[in-house]
Write a structure and sequence with these properties.
mainly alpha
């Protein structure tokens, strides 16, 4: 791992070092999987989606912290607004849902990640619903302001409620 700290090491080269380390010693996945995912997100998004699916279904599947970290790497590292590639959005959502389930819905950071994941997949109603829970759970925590900002943003982008206006058809009376 000393190669990772070498001056001038670019992200693609770091990804290669991490891939080689995992190939030589797969048991390192819980320790370096998230680092490799971050590198792949910067250099090869399709490979990042494939590797994230591998982590979420494999070594990360019962570890809510690692699941939440992987989901946040995907949905939260960039400005968490707007649509995300479908394959990445789906794996991030699965990871965040599983982490939230494992935490029993009581972890503020994970609820925030799940809210952002729903937002990034385009489901504003679910994003707002989960983000409201994240706000309640984050009361008094250092990242409460950020969680509240997400909720404001998500609410602002909710479509207006549908109104059921009577329509008339030819030959009918209102």
């Amino acid at each position: 791992f000393a190669k990772l700290r070498a001056p001038g090491k670019d992200v693609a080269a770091r990804a290669m070092v991490l891939r080689d380390a995992l190939a030589a010693e797969p048991t390192l996945e819980n320790g370096v999987g998230d680092m490799l995912l971050q590198c792949l997100l910067m250099t090869d998004r399709p490979a990042a989606a494939q590797f994230a699916r591998h982590l979420v279904a494999g070594s990360f599947k019962d570890n809510p912290d690692l699941l939440n970290d992987a989901a946040w790497d995907i949905v939260g590292r960039e400005p968490p607004y707007g649509q995300l590639e479908t394959d990445l959005a789906e794996v991030a959502l699965r990871a965040a849902q599983r982490a939230d389930q494992l935490f029993g819905g009581k972890d503020a950071a994970t609820a925030d990640t799940l809210g952002v994941a729903w937002y990034r997949t385009g489901d504003m109603a679910r994003a707002v619903d989960v983000q409201e829970r994240a706000v309640r759970l984050s009361a008094g925590l250092r990242f409460e302001t950020e969680v509240r900002q997400h909720l404001v943003r998500f609410r602002d982008e909710l479509p207006p409620p549908r109104t059921h206006e009577p329509t008339s058809r030819p030959g009918t009376r209102l």
